[in-house]
């Protein structure tokens, strides 16, 4: 029997494609989320992936705050209503996690301090991957923990 997926309101929606199991749990860096929500074209499939339950985004207070901050950038020219609409296409599908007081050790030094929270969240939440297009984070891709959106697409078995 197919697993129900959640609709935009977070309630059970249509049947989830059984070929998409097992569900991947992933931390998405802010740039990937913003690209999927605001620009859509290249990463529109990422938005569909979390909306139909193929992947569950994991967020914490710190990464959610970062997303809100970035969506408010003047360069995006988003109204508050537009920001709320975009967030309603993301937040109902996320799994909330807490960073521990003692942060987990990172597998390698992170050049950008702002990126470290995504690595800490990935490790602390036992996520399957951190999905990023950030070259600093991609340099830490050892062991498959840090992957690009393209690699996520392959893992999901979605054609390009």
Written overview of the protein:
By secondary structure, this protein is of the alpha/beta class. The protein has a single domain (4-13, 24-156), classed as 3-Layer(aba) Sandwich (Rossmann fold). It contains 7 helices and 7 strands; from the N terminus they run E-E-E-H-H-E-H-H-E-H-E-H-E-H. The chain has helices spanning 30-39, 44-51, 61-71, 80-88, 116-124, 135-138, 149-156; strands spanning 4-6, 12-15, 24-28, 55-59, 95-96, 129-131, 146-147. The strands form 2 sheets. A 5-stranded parallel beta sheet has the order 5-4-3-6-7, sandwiched between helices. The chain has a two-stranded antiparallel ribbon with strand order 1-2.
Strand fraction: 15-25%
Separation, N- and C-terminal Cα atoms: 27 Å
Looking at the structure, the CATH topology is: Rossmann fold
Sheet of most strands: 5 strands, parallel
Counted up, domains total 1
Supply database-style keywords:
160 residues; Rossmann fold; disordered N terminus; 15% strand; alpha/beta; five-stranded parallel β-sheet; 7 strands
Itemize the secondary structure elements and their pairings.
Layout: E1 4-6, E2 12-15, E3 24-28, H1 30-39, H2 44-51, E4 55-59, H3 61-71, H4 80-88, E5 95-96, H5 116-124, E6 129-131, H6 135-138, E7 146-147, H7 149-156
Parallel strand pairs: 3-4, 3-6, 4-5, 6-7
Antiparallel strand pairs: 1-2
Helix pairs in contact: 1-2
């Amino acid at each position: 029997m197919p697993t129900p997926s959640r609709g935009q309101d977070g309630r059970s929606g249509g049947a989830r494609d059984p070929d998409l199991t097992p569900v991947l749990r992933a931390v998405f860096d802010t740039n990937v989320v913003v690209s999927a929500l605001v620009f859509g074209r290249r990463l529109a499939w990422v938005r569909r992936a979390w909306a139909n339950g193929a992947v569950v985004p994991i967020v914490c207070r710190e990464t959610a705050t970062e997303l809100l901050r970035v969506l408010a950038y003047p360069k995006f020219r988003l109204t508050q209503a537009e920001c709320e609409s975009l967030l309603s296409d993301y937040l109902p599908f996320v799994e909330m996690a807490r960073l521990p007081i003692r942060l987990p050790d990172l597998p390698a030094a992170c050049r950008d301090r702002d990126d470290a929270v995504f690595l800490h969240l990935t490790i602390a939440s036992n996520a399957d991957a951190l999905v990023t297009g950030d070259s600093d984070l991609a340099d830490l891709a050892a062991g498959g923990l840090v992957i690009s959106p393209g690699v996520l697409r392959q893992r999901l078995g979605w054609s390009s």
